[in-house]
Amino acid sequence: MVQRLLEPGEIESLDHTAIPRLLLPRPAELYAARAERLRQLATNSIKGIPVDEALASYVGLMAELVQAQADVVKTLPPAGVPLPGQELMRVAHEHNMPPLPVTGARPAEWRAVFAAILDRLEARVAGQPQLLTALDALRGLTEAQLEGAADAVLGEFAEGIEPAQAPFVAAALQVTWSVMAAQLDERWAQPLVTGTLCPVCGSHPVASVIRIGGQSQGYRYLHCAVCASEWHMVRVKCSCCEANSKVAYQGLTAADADPVAENVAAAKEGKMLNKANDPTRVARAETCDECHSYRKIFNQEHDYNVDPLADDLASLVLDVLVSELGYARASGNPLLRLGTPA
Which residue range or ranges hold the FdhE central domain (predicted)? Predict the structure, then answer.
């Protein structure tokens, strides 16, 4: 049974120091902020996340795609994609299953969202013939092909979709599920048997983020790759196997950085080294020697505007370095199809 709604007086009496276990998305703000973040990343303007020229053009294209997501969200009413029936969600609640599962039947509205995103994107890239050709190919997919592509994206299957088409299909699915998740009463979302999957839709997280502000101050959340919900997981715990004995953090340090000398200089002046807004701590890889996997973690304490999905996409150099150490990526980024995740 879903818990009854609390009266105003009861709400005021709650323990407001409790950690918010679930943060539902705000699509009207999410995609516009993400598009801006991607534009900044594409121009190599974010300290701590270096983006080379080859990747920058792709990140810039994804900024246009995410802006198209933002434009489409603005055209949708608050209930633009209806929630599943109460009985379906009640069964999910009673069995600790996600109320908006990405498995099974999808809301038919997602295909209209897909078409609208392509229309918005076409208007934004009118001078790029190759991209326009790609958009025409996407429009030419039959309903069966499109649904098969959605299956491949949501299931992270290697087959069933062209890698170049995957981000565009993923973009429509993200809008669809985030709009549904935004309408959800969070009490429908029970903790799952595993803390490594989204309690709202059952998808894998794309990355994790340390949040600041309010009751979320300093806590780590996993960010869903599909519906953009975030759920709390304690720090120093593997977000893939949930072990905590062999977790470590790998980061990027500027070639000219000398943290030892920096600390010595600070000590001579009788002060501690100020690590606020430290670019080397914005993006790190959380590695686990139990399952030999990794997932990135981004720190809002050092860059207020971090976006887990955008920053994950742009920090491919960190993927390369951590992979060379023998760790496998735990799950993929929906805006980049590199192959089958570990």
Answer: 197-235
| pLDDT tens by residue, 205-255 | 999 999 998 888 889 999 999 999 999 999 889 999 999 889 999 998 654
Contact 5, 14 (CB under 8 A): no
The two three-digit tokens of residue 201, written as one number: 């839709």
Tell me, which fold does domain 205-329 have in CATH?
FdhE-like fold (3.90.1670)
Cα–Cα distance, 310 to 318 (Å, whole number)? 14
Which string of DSSP letters, residue by residue, matches 252-285?
A: ---TT--HHHHHHHHHHTT-----TT-GGGTEEE
Hey, what CATH topology would domain 23-188 get? FdhE-like fold (3.90.1670)
**What does the alpha-carbon distance between residue 337 and residue 340 come to, in Å, rounded to a whole number?**
8
Listed in order, the ranges of the chain carrying CATH 3.90.1670.10 are 23-188, 205-329
CA distance 11 to 21: 17
